[in-house]
Automatic annotation (TrEMBL):
GO biological process: amino acid biosynthetic process; aromatic amino acid family biosynthetic process; chorismate biosynthetic process; quinate catabolic process
Domain of life: Bacteria
Binding-site positions, substrate: N74, D87, I101, S102
Pathway of action: Metabolic intermediate biosynthesis; chorismate biosynthesis; chorismate from D-erythrose 4-phosphate and phosphoenolpyruvate: step 3/7
Keyword field: Amino-acid biosynthesis, Aromatic amino acid biosynthesis, Lyase, Membrane, Transmembrane, Transmembrane helix
Cross-referenced InterPro entries: DHquinase_II, DHquinase_II_CS, DHquinase_II_sf
Name of the protein this chain belongs to: 3-dehydroquinate dehydratase
Protein family: Belongs to the type-II 3-dehydroquinase family.
Amino acid sequence: MSNKPIYILNGPNLNRLGRREPEIYGTTTLAEVEQSCRKAAGDRSLEFRQSNSEETLIDWVHEAIDEGAGIIINPAAFTFTSLALLDALKMFTGPIIEFHISNIHRREQIYHRSYVSMTATTVMAGLGAAGYPLAVEAMEMLIRAKKR
């Protein structure tokens, strides 16, 4: 197994998980999500991060380009607005999972066009916060298969 970590990057407002629109996002906190991801990762190291700043997320993608085995990204609102994030992700040569807690395709029309999907290896959406550890398991499979 590679020593390189999986980067799990979370975008704006995800620091409010557990309190933000629980009818959509549930009551699980981001700290609880991180714990479940670390458990799912086993011996694989994780860089689990959250920022409300587009600039910071892009800097972390740049770091992952040099240091990471894979990226799981929940870009939140930047999914639908950030060409700069798309451009950064396009430079990553490993697998990318675009992750959403809700099924964005069952939501309002504004949530249906993802820039991140243009470069993501795969998209996981609608599994709730419980989907994060499944994304870690899927990432391990993609890394082993060397999928982009």
